[in-house]
Amino acid sequence: MQRMHIADCGVPADVQAIQNILNAVIADSTALYDYQPRSLETVSAWAQQKREQQWPLRGAYHSNGELLGFATFGPFRPQPAYKYTVEHSIYIHQAHRGKGVARALLQDLIETAQARERHIMIGCIDTTNVASIRLHEKLGFTHGGTIEQAGFKFGCWLDVSFYQKRLGTPKQPVDG
Questions:
Q1: Does pLDDT of 1 surpass 70?
Q2: Any residues with CB less than 8 A from the CB of 168 and at least 6 apart, and which?
Q3: Does the pLDDT of residue 2 top 70, yes or no?
Q4: What residue spans define the domains of the chain?
Q5: Most buried residue among 48, 54, 65, 158 by CB atoms closer than 10 A?
């Protein structure tokens, strides 16, 4: 594992690095089902919205200050009965994949979700992303289902699998 630390990110100083990571993922992988790169303004507004709505936006930083990757979670669905369920995303700079960055970020998100009294974490993973599937399984996520041909990118149909982890919180859930 690299020398790094996890901290809140998404402040204006981080936005360019976040944009670079996202746009590389969009251009070169099926980890994100977008076609067009995201503008700096779009990423900045997204990060600002995360802060305003108090959703975590966590970064893994190298000891030299470089943003290696970031992770976040937000609402799974807008209806109020889903209030204890969150869907997460993790994106790693291509030069730092396979070095423990995603694992550290996912562990941090799990702890954050538990501290915020969430019950279920969900990850939607392209079925060809074997590394992400294995990571989720190692951290206790189980397969919740697959949707075949859910997306179309790079000239082919893409299947997605949902992985979920029950967190054991909240201790006293309430309706409404």
A1: no
A2: 114, 119
A3: no
A4: 4-121
A5: 158
Q: What is the mean pLDDT of residues 139-152?
A: 98
Give residues with Cβ within 8 angstroms of 62, minimum separation 6. 2, 3, 4, 68
Mean pLDDT of 83-93: 97
6 touches 105 (CB < 8 A)? yes
- Which residues does residue 166 pair with via DSSP β-bridges, in sequence order? 120
For the domain covering 4-121, report its CATH number. 3.40.630.30
Helix (H, G, I), strand (E, B) or coil at 90: strand
Sign of CA dihedral 64, 66, 69, 75: positive
Residues in the chain: 176
**110: pLDDT confidence band, cut at 50, 70 and 90?**
very high
Residue with tokens 């149909």: 157
| Angstrom distance (rounded) from CA 176 to CA 166 | 21
